[in-house]
Amino acid sequence: MICSTLRRVGHVHIYLVRKASGVSKGHHQQTVGSRPAASEFAARGASGNVLELLGKSYPQDNYSNLSRKVLSRVGRNLHNQQHHPLWLIKERVKEHFYQQYVGRFGTPLFSVYDDLSPVVTTWQNFDSLLIPADHPSRKKGDNYYVNGTHMLRAHTSAHQWDLLRAGLDAFLVVGDVYRRDQIDSQHYPVFHQLEGVRLFSKHELFTGIKDGESLQLFEQSSRSAYKQETHTMEATKLLEFDLKQTLTRLVTHLFGDGLDIRWVDCYFPFTHPSFEMEINFHGEWLEVLGCGVMEQQLVNSAGAQDQIGWAFGLGLERLAMILYDIPDIRLFWSEDERFLKQFRVSDINQKVKFQPLSKYPAVINDISFWLPSENYTENDFYDLVRTIGGDLVEKVELIDKFEHPKTYLLTLQMEWRSGKMNTLEDKVNYHIDFLKYVTILHIHSISNARTIQHF
Known about the structure:
alpha+beta; seven-stranded mixed sheet; four-stranded antiparallel sheet; disordered N terminus
């Protein structure tokens, strides 16, 4: 991913390298040359304005950066729409945990929360998980901020602390999460995660272990690559074994027996040691989830000082794309009956292989523009493309750079790829959207820029 790009779209100086051609009449109501309302791009960030979101009011400030495209996705909750492929994955995971892990009274050990609001505080999203104040994951260029104190959650881990504080020691959290990201078939600003957490007391962890009565959860030592400073090696290894065994059973339930699995050491601020699970699927190693032993400082701050635990997180889209052979992440937002009907199955464990819808080839356009000298992130440009081009845009990538030898202004040339069109109407509307995008960017450049090179 290229990290040098656009934060203030209004300051971009553009020239068009190659225009779309062969545009026919479409059904868009807005005139291509008309100046768009501010809502075309983002929730207004001016101080004094208020955003109404999910029944609550949030004052706007200079941190507010929600695009119209992203706001239109809030509340859709694809993971709760019956027979949607993401719902199928969620239900299969729930079924597995309900059947495999039963409490003392025959009820499921794990509670499931799949309707928590995606609007969280920055403390919930970062500080509760021990993410440092200067950590790059907090950047405005990578997150969707409602204002300086609230945001759309970047991960379902944002709810960990609250649920632990409420006294829960085994739970799953499912929900939509939001991150500003590049445009290609694998990335979308909204996706869905499933989070799992389980805590153990000394009795629960060491029951059935030889001489378990003499073993301890905690000690005061030094941190190493293998354990935290407050955990004993015995407790860490047992917890790690239980975590990996739990997740191996889960992916075996999803993918079937005989699956090759490997564990890769990694880093997360809220777990240590931490791991990623990779599976060998059709001869290719694919990362499917991250996990680890929860940082004891987090567990202690939530009031569970006498317990230790593990946590994992997985992406529902990632699993669904692998299991159902879905090639493009945008398809999950499709309301096309030809897509949705493929997943209306009588048994959630029934095998489904996605059948492509499109018969039209991809359409490619190039656009080039000058960059301002500062305050520019690539994800702002991607948000603008998604807002104007919608889900017809499959991929945008940098194909060339040019720095003026005298002014030192930098020009980027971006390739905008539509992907295969589902219908002829889509193809026509794509061309209209591309010209609409160029016109809007041109208008906003004129109103804010010193010069326009060429249009």
